Every structure is written in C-alpha cells, then in structure tokens.
Amino acid sequence: MNVAMTDSHFELRPIARVESPLTDLAAAPMQAYEDAPEAWLVFDPDVVDGLDGLQPGDRVVVITWLDRAARDVLRVHPRDDPNNPIAGVFNTRSPARPNPIGLHPTEILEIDGPRVLVAELEAINGTPVVDLKPMLRRQ
Amino acid sequence: MNVAMTDSHFELRPIARVESPLTDLAAAPMQAYEDAPEAWLVFDPDVVDGLDGLQPGDRVVVITWLDRAARDVLRVHPRDDPNNPIAGVFNTRSPARPNPIGLHPTEILEIDGPRVLVAELEAINGTPVVDLKPMLRRQ
C-alpha cells in the first residue's frame, strides 16, 4: 500500500485568488482572529456558477493552497516560537506540511459577480483558493 | 489572470487511507453526524512523524480527496434531492465540485503507530486522506 500511496497524486486547480492588503508573509497574522483584514476572493469565470445562492452574512470555510510553505517538514515549533515544544505538523496549524492546505472559517460580506468579499482572512495577496464550502450548523 | 489560473495546478499527495466498514458510496451517510461509523486512518510511514503529540480525545479535522466525485459539476440539487432547489456547489457540501476536498470534523479515539482511529467518518473505505489538523478553539 505504501508504494501505491506515494506513487499516486491528485491535481488541484485554483478556482480563485486572494486579493488582500497583506503582502508580507512575515507580517501576516497567524490566525484570522488575530487582526486579519477583509479580503476579496476573485473567482475564475469558468467556475462562477458554483457561487449560486451564496449571500452576504453566510458563514463559509475558504480553502487555500499555501504555495509558499515547505512540504518536507514533519515537525515544527508551533507558531514559529522556539519556546513551544516541537510537535508533529498534523498536531499544528503550521502552513508547513506535506499538503499545505489552509482552512479559513470566515463570513461573506459582499458579492459582486465573480468577486466575493470575506471578513478576516489571514492569507496573503495572490494566494490560490481551491474550494469554498458553507459552514455546517453542527461544525 | 484567468489564463494563469487555469494553466497552473498543484500536486496533492495522499498521506493516509481510510479503513472503514463503509464500502458502498450510495449507502454512505452524507454527514458524519448521520450515523457515520468509526474509521481507521492508516498513515504512510514516511509522514508518521507528523502525528507527534496527537492524543485520544483530540478534536481534529480530517481532510480527504473524494476521488469518486465529478469535477465538472457547478450546480446541484443539495443532498441529491430533486425537491431541493438547485444551488452552486460552493453553497453546498456536495462532493461534486472542481476540487473534491472533503472536510470531516471528528475526534481521535486511539493511536497505534501509523494507525489513528477516529469517531464518525462518512468517507468510504480506501478514500485518500491529504491532511489532518487540530481544531482551533475558536473554530
């Protein structure tokens, strides 16, 4: 099974890009609730029909591909703080991990055609978005 | 920007596989809270260091790649029910979407080396796992 696992892979395609005043990775907040700014998600015209029915006020999870992150790291000091004991990446929210997927719970503030404004997004300008899902009430 | 978006893609690699009594896609529950069974996540030995520090009782989000899902669908009847008005896939939890990423909030019940038992997973046997993250308290 191991051989089959490492040989296989899946192709992830960006559906949108983040348009944000955050441009400096080092200065970006680590979590959305740490003073992250509003940001626009600019959708590819090919997938804009997938937005049907979404409205301002909806709680959503934005899923990004953190394309600057290291993929060969399995242990980190959480929050890049050497005082935090080292932990496996699957036990942290570090962007460094085999598949650098970012999960960003947030709220839709405005929709203008292929452009969706969300509150509190800690991803930097240009980050690829790979999915958008409504929050479940039970989540 | 559109050309650059559709031309680029990212390579997602499985880090684990789901081992579950659910084998029939049609019979699988649509959400974890709808009587989904416990399931084992069997990690690739190459990434097992990433599990360091995880413990039974931890709330986590399992991220899967729903490899049987249609990727060219942008509008669906939610929950496959024709009585539900059609909606954009980004406004639903349908597996059908451009990037069929599954988010599964659950709890770790047991860890045995590269094998992690979780409660309530609605993914079927053999589903690839692409990431595992701890729940944030604020999520």
Task: Give a summary of the structure in a few sentences.
Two copies of one chain form a homodimer. The first copy, chain A, contains one helix and nine strands.
What Rg of chain A, in angstroms, do the CA atoms define? 16 Å
Q: How far is it from the N-terminal to the C-terminal residue of chain A, by CA?
A: 32 Å
Mean pLDDT score of chain A, rounded?
A: 90
Strand content of chain A: 25-35%
Helix coverage percent of chain A: under 10%
Structural class of chain A: mainly beta
Annotation field: number of helices of chain A: 1
Shape category of chain A: globular
Oligomer: homodimer
The chain pair with the largest interface is:
A-B, 58 and 59 residues
Number of strands of chain A: 9
Give a structural overview.
- Two copies of one chain form a homodimer.
- Chain A has 139 residues and is mainly beta.
- Chain A has one helix and nine strands, in the order αβββββββββ.
- The first copy, chain A, has one helix at residues 2-7, and strands spanning 10-12, 16-19, 39-43, 59-65, 75-76, 87-88, 101-112, 115-118, 128-134.
- In chain A, a hairpin with a 2-residue loop joins strand 7 and strand 8.
- The first copy, chain A, starts with a helix and ends in a 5-residue tail after the last strand.
- At the A-B interface, helix 1, strand 1, strand 4, strand 6 and strand 7 of A face helix 1, strand 1, strand 4, strand 6 and strand 7 of B.
- Strand 1 of chain A pairs antiparallel with strand 1 (10-12) of chain B.
